[in-house]
């Protein structure tokens, strides 16, 4: 990696990490800073110095947005939140072991997505809305013209929406994602907001959304396993596509046109490679859990059989957590990390895991998921920026490798920032709110004896809806995600944008897709800038 680019990535990562821990500890929110990184890289490229002009490359800008977003989510959602759990629990001696375990989980989390991206389970041509927003921002800055004007208009509207507390990113997502998945997401948001008026009960209370997520998650895992065991290829790989086109060209008469398929839409990860990636991911999560158990002193607190069970359960929970969070993020741009972690916390209480081991388990599990989703966003952005290059397949694979290296730089900087800052933040009482919920839940235990029964009951409709929607739509997971989020008026923005999308496409035809993608990307980019700017208020 070029020295100048490395310095820029380190500086941007430091900025992203500080933004991340500040927002999550003071406001309880996290911001997607990838657009910020892209814009800064564009500005650096305009500086009239020869060694900085290289930053005008859209691919270097892609690495910049990958590094800063990785650092932001790593510092806030993975590292600081994880180490806050044992701190709030009263075990400050476990902060450093927890930081080590969380960092291992973070890196494994991103590695699994890096290896699985482009498969039938996590296809590159799925929505991944924030990634699309980042890519469109970079392309608009590079090409200008009408695309830039549309994107800039959407960005201005999205940024203005944050000033009036309107979640316009929800409307932006509805212009980009799967219509069926987002319809269920909007219905979930509506039921959560208007449940007290319609049904005289708060559907967000009493573990109802968690139950729907449990059912949908179990079916989603079953669908993933079925996909992994399947031998059929619904799409050929990119290399296979090249071979087939070459053979077709050789066999066809010289005057006959050969249809040129887009190689970028082919799967780059087949079922065998996907299976190996997930199996190795589970093995790595198991190794990380072993290290955490040793550093956390669990050897002296649990029986040998109990430690083995704890390690295997922690690795399983980490893998399942990242998959469910990743599938939700792929379709909607939201990831229900808190809710899925809370489900495993409740399961841990139900099976009788002692409080200290459970606190470490929750911290370990919560460190996975966000980086998985963010890496998917970043690789989606890179895929959009690289898909017109020919030959595509080797260029795409090398681009993904460079992005993964950029993310590792972001993770390393985030680790350093959290290691230096946690004492200062926690000493001022600036602790991520979700960490307090985890710790308080562990301390109080299962105060609601019907919690498990409620989740099992509501798991039935969640499972049924997920089964009907199938792997591509993830309707059950998206319904549960909507039920877990209480954001006023977001339901109307999602459902209204879907109506506009369907109507505008009927009016304009296929040309509507590109225009709506730009508008949606602009709304998300503007909302992201507004969220990041909130650090100025703290």
From TrEMBL:
Keywords: Membrane, Transmembrane, Transmembrane helix, Transport. Its main location: membrane. InterPro entries: OPT. It comes from the Bacteria. It is a multi-pass membrane protein. This is OPT/YSL family transporter. The chain crosses the membrane at residues 27-45, 66-89, 95-114, 156-187, 207-229, 282-299, 305-327, 404-422, 477-500. Pfam families: OPT. It is found in: Membrane.
